[in-house]
Amino acid sequence: MQYNQQSSCLEISICVSTHDLDFYFRQKVQDIRLEKAMENDSLLKKINQLITNGFSIKQGGVTNQLSIEAYENTLDGYTFFYLKSEPIRWNEPTSVTYDLFMDLFTEQQQKLTVLGSKHSDTYPFMLFQREQTIKLN
Q1: Buried (b) or exposed (e) across 48-84, using 16+ Cβ within 10 A?
Q2: Which of 28, 50, 114, 131 sits at 20 to 30 Å (Cα–Cα) from 105?
Q3: Which of 121, 129, 60 is nearest to 97 (CA)?
């Protein structure tokens, strides 16, 4: 995740196992193969909602809306989602909840790396620690 000073938005990339995403989608949303779901506009919206429900950003208690700008399936079994936030204030405390798939995969762990102009910070997210206050630098 990185803050874009020109747009005042956060740019986020989320990498998931395509197998896990497929299994989760079929268990929680609709019993259809992921490849077929991604070809259907209404099902693609459900996938987008699934991703943005599992990763959220708040400032001052207000949830910042995220939009998925693109996605990419790789040959090595991963799917990357590229998200963009609404304009956000970079110098205010920012709360991130990252509990994607944790309701089905209770051992799931996530890692968020925030890239800054001078250094980067990494934050772990687990079942018992789904939300953290991060520093945008």
Answers
A1: bebbbebbbbbbeeeebebebeebeeeeeeebebebb
A2: 114
A3: 129
pTM of the model: 0.88
First vs last C-alpha separation in the chain: 11
| Contacts for 122 with CB less than 8 Å, ≥ 6 apart | 111, 112, 113, 114
C-alpha–C-alpha distance, residues 8 and 66, integer Å: 13
Q: Which of 36-40, 89-93, 105-109 has the lowest mean pLDDT?
A: 36-40
Structure confidence by residue, pLDDT tens digits, 99-131? 999 999 989 899 999 998 788 999 999 999 999
- Rounded to whole angstroms, the Cα distance separating 91 from 122 reads 18
Biggest alpha carbon–alpha carbon distance for the chain = 45
- The CA-based angle 75-46-93, given to 5 degrees, is 90
* Mean pLDDT on 57-78: 92
Give residue 53's pLDDT.
92
3-class SS at 35? helix
In one-letter notation, the amino acid at residue 93 is P
